[in-house]
User: Fold this.
Amino acid sequence: MGIQLVTTAAQLRAESARLLTEKGGTSQGLVPTMGALHAGHARLARTAVEQNDVVVASIFVNPLQFGEAVDLERYPRTLEADLALLEAEGVDLVFAPSVEEVYPGGEPMVRITSGTLADKWEGASRPGHFDGALTVVAKLLHYGLPGTGQTVYRAYFGQKDAQQLTLVRRMVADLNFPVEIVPVPIVRSPDGLALSSRNRFLSDPEREAALVLSRALRLVEDRANAHEPLDLDSARALVESQPLVELDYFDVVDPLTLEPLAENCRETPFRGEGLVLIAAKVGPVRLIDNVPLDS
Assistant:
């Protein structure tokens, strides 16, 4: 049987329960996406299929997390290609609801508040973004909840959206969601650029310029692995030397609190765990990337 497509929460519950029964399954995975899928999403789906008896992927472009209507309208919709990619990876069921299905009364009057973890980095540059993202993630986690309490339930998120992953984990822990959050490493093109649905909007010169983001991250990572001072100033200077790139932020933070680890960045050798975050506009396209440190 090929991949199945459903568009309502009722259909999702019924079909996922049927698949679990037919397969004698004891585990279900959820891969939430906004579509326009690429090899990074394929890795999410592949990981979920390897670890679960039944796998559901969602495709929903969430209006609550877009600051401007033009960005929402511009976001690519490629449903047929997305279904083909997910089917090739072995996903059983795709949930592709309408906006009216997810928000039947219009914009929700009550939504998740992302709290102090969202006050900085992406949250500072995109006010309200994480409130909208967490609201829809909460709904999707509920939609994908298996019908039996005996079923192990996992949801898969890419590490490229590092701050979102941190917030989702915190929401699940703080609000006691019965789901295991599974992080999946970043997938990069051979030249080092982190895969993103937004990359398709880069011109050839802009894409070449965007490579400075991963080069700067590798520079800091290499220094951390060598137990050298991280010297973020010189890494920032590398990014800022590229005229097509407008740097927003570039810092090393605690992976759990997202607070800056300034004391490890300048003159002392780096020890411990950290997360290097970077965000920049390349031409008209906003890109984010990160690399974990563990030395």
